[in-house]
Write a structure and sequence with these properties.
Three copies of one chain form a homotrimer.
Chain A lengths: L8 E3 L15 E4 L2 E7 L18 H18 L7 E8 L5 H13 L9 E6 L8 E8 L2
Parallel strand pairs in A: 4-5
Antiparallel strand pairs in A: 1-2, 2-3, 3-6, 4-6
Helix pairs in contact in A: 1-2
């Protein structure tokens, strides 16, 4: 890539998103690599209000999380088809089957043209009230 | 890369692998980036049977997990030498020393030509009976 | 990239770092991709002594972890500006607010020229005495 112009790193900040609680970006793109930060099921930001999850259920939070990931992908000119890896963080192994059901149904509706991303699902602690967090790595082009 | 043909995203599905339990790929390659999904110590798939771990011990499961990661790398034209990052998920901090012993012995036998990958090891929850999960990011070329 | 010379994978081993406890690299670079292994708050290595954390507090450990990540980035010719993703592993959800405070203050002092990296923070188990672990993915150029 010696002849290429320097790559620019761009922050991806969809208008729907709350301000990050620290000095990080919701997503960044540099060259053809796009990284989405860990997203949770927060509803679109409302000025002056604290972020609120879409609801208490895994389904509500996962669907909102997908919407939040997708908004960042689109802000960077990417789509689900460009995603290489989804990292899914759940809080309870008992949620695995339901997560898979929601996951399958969601992606069946996305009309993907490329094979689905790889995925790792592990069970961790998350802030109180949150049942799922997802981040994504995409390669465009 | 403006002159290059569009990159194709390819699913990597070794014949030894069980069908993923959801709409994700065991591995994907796009351009020179290859991502292996979280692998566990499941034995090669047997049609009509549920996936079964190679055994109850960390050693059995880790060695089978390595074999499962390697099968996906090879399906994508890569080898251990191309791996940049290994993410190792254990369930018990008490397994760290034994994991390292198994890890070292395994990679000593792989006759690597390049330096070993970076690694992060953290302790999470995994589905019942599973002691280890590993995913990998590779850069080919 | 068909006309390019084969990419070389290089291990990044800052002189400040202890020998990894297993066959992995503290960081690797191949082409314009640089991966930093999970770093913790260990002080610079002292020959013949076991690795020791910078202190018992989240602040001491986080600042030392940043220094350890940065040393690997610099060893590979990169800087914080090249970092796409920071993965922060904490052991206690109660540490989130303090981590963010330390994080913000640290990066405010780094005089970044590019937008900050994306980030995922999850709560996992870590070896006894360690409160934080961080790894990083960078894209140079």
């Amino acid at each position: 890539m010696s002849d290429a112009a320097p790559l620019t790193k761009t922050a991806l900040t969809p208008p729907t998103h709350t301000t990050p609680p620290a000095k990080f970006s919701h997503g960044v793109r540099k060259g053809n690599i796009l990284q989405v930060a860990g997203q949770v099921g927060f509803l679109p930001a409302v000025e002056g209000q604290a972020p609120a999850p879409a609801g208490p259920t895994l389904r509500e939070q996962t669907l909102q999380t997908f919407a939040n990931v997708q908004a960042i992908l689109e802000e960077g000119g990417a789509s689900w088809d460009d995603v290489m890896m989804m990292r899914v963080y759940l809080t309870d192994t008992g949620h695995f089957a339901e997560l898979n059901e929601i996951y399958d149904q969601y992606f069946a509706e996305q009309d993907l043209q490329a094979p689905p991303a790889a995925r790792t699902t592990v069970y961790v602690g998350l802030p109180k009230g949150l049942l799922v967090e997802i981040d994504a790595l995409a390669v465009l082009g």
